[in-house]
Amino acid sequence: MAFHSILFPVTAGQAEAGTTTQPAYFTDLNLDQVIDSITIGRERYALKPLFNVVLSDINAVGYRHEVLQDLESDGVSSAVGRFARSMGAMREQVNQANKLRYRYQKESLFLDTVRTYCRAVTRLGQDLVREDMRSRGWLDFRDYLAGYLESPDFVSLNEKSRKIKDDLATVKYCLTIRGGRARVSRYDGETDYSAEVEDTFEKFQQGAVRDYLADMPNYLDMNHVEANVLELVTKLYPDIFAVLDQFCHDRATYLDKTITDFDREVQFYVAYLEFIDRLKATGLSFSYPRVSSSDKEVSVNETFDIALADQLTTEKTPLVCNDFRLSGQERVLVVTGPNQGGKTTFARTFGQLHYLAAMGLPVPGQDARLPLFDQLFTHFEAEEDIANLSGKLQDDLSRIHDILANATADSVIVMNESFTSTTLQDALFLGREILNRIILLDALCVYVTFVDELSRLGPTTVSVASTVVPGDLAERTFKIVRKPADGLAYAVAIAEKYGLTYEVLKGRIAS
After folding, report:
1. Residue closest to 296 by CA, chosen among 458, 441, 465, 435
2. C-alpha separations of 254 from 87, 120, 410 in Å
3. Is 506 exposed, middle or buried (0-12, 13-18, 19+ CB in 10 A)?
4. pLDDT > 70: percent of the chain
C-alpha cells in the first residue's frame, strides 16, 4: 500500500486538518488549554490545526493507535527524536541563509542545509530498518523512505552535494596584505609562518600563563572586505564555484514533500505522548479505548479531566478519578449534587473522552469503551451580556435550539447548569422538554442540573451524583457515583463550617 500520511490511512482528511478552525466546544471543555499545553515549544510545526479535525471511521482510529504503539518503543522514539533535531538544525540553517547578503556565503550555507537533510533522512532510514514495527503507518512509511533513498533524484542530490563539499574543502589560498592593499593568490606550498611563530615561542612558556587573547566577535554575515576576498577566491577556482552555482540553481527546491509532511505530522504524536507522560509520572492512567461506530456502550474506569490534571500536576495537587458506564438503553447521565462537588469537571471529562477517542489518542483512564460521534455539542452557562437585548434565558434557548436542530443519533451533547437563572418550575419544564427530545434522538448526553426530577425520566436516564465526606457534610469528595438524586445541597453544613449561618451573622452584626 502506498504511503499517504502518518496521521491518515488515506489522503482524505489531510487537507481538512490544515484549514479548519477550532471547534466551538473546545472552550467549554477546556480543550483549548489542553492543546496549548500539548503544543507549547513546538510552534514551528503548526500543530494546532491537526487537533481540530476528529476522525470519522474506525479504520482511521485504529491506524493512529497502531502508529502510537510503535512510537512508544524506545528505538522508534529515539530515531524520530534524532530526525527531528536534524531537521530543526536544517531549518535554522535555512533561516540563517535567508539573512545573509553575499551570494557565495548564502550558497555555502545552502549546501550545508542540503547535507544536513541528506544525512537526516539517510540516518532515519537506517534506524527504522532495525526496528520491529507492526503498524501500517510505520511500515508503509519505512517502505516509502527506502524507495526514496534509492531513487535517482535523492542519490544524485546526496552524491553531488557531498562531492561539491569535498571540492570546496580543497580550496586553499594565500592572502598577502601590504599597507592598504590585499592580494589573493593560490596556495602553492608557502610556509605557514603562524605555525613557526608558535613553535618558536613555545619554549618560553612555563606552566600556566595568563591568557591575553581578546575575544573577537564572530558575526555570521561577512563584511565587505571578506566578501571581496571571497569573490577573488572564486576567480582562482572558477570550475568548483561554477558547479556550486549550478547546483544551487537546480536544487532550489530539494525537499521531498512527503518527508517534510512526516516531519511535521509525527510531532502530533510525539507532543501528545510527552504531554501524557508527565501525567503518568504522577500515577494517572491512560489507555487505548475500544472504539465503536455502532455500539453506544460507554464505560471507563479511573478517568479524569485532562485539563484539570495538567493544572494540578503543575501545582503538585492530587487528583480524584471517577468511573462511569452507560449500557443497554441508557443514553443520558443526569448529574446532581452539591455545588463545588465536581459536577462540571465530570461533564467536561465526558466530552474530553469522546474527543480524544475520536482523535485516535489514548484517553485518561482504564478499560475505556467509547463510540465515535458525528458531532459534539456543549451548552455551558454563559455570563449575561448586557449588550444582548434578548436576555439570558432567550439566549440559552436559542443556543439549545441550534443544538437540537443539528444533533443526530450519533451526536454527543454536554449540558452544564442550564436554566439556573429561571425558577425551579421553569427549569424542570424546560429540562424535561429538552431531555425528552435528546432521548428521542437517541443521542448520548451528560446533563448537569440542580433539578433532581430530571434524573427520573425513564430507563434511558441514569442518575449520578457528587458526594460528600461522611460525618463532614461540608467536605467534598469529588467522587461522582451512580445513585438516586437526594435533593441535598448541604448549604447549611457549609454555612455552619465557615460561620455564615443566620444566627452567627446576626450575632456578629449585633456585637
Report:
1. 441
2. 13, 14, 46
3. exposed
4. 88
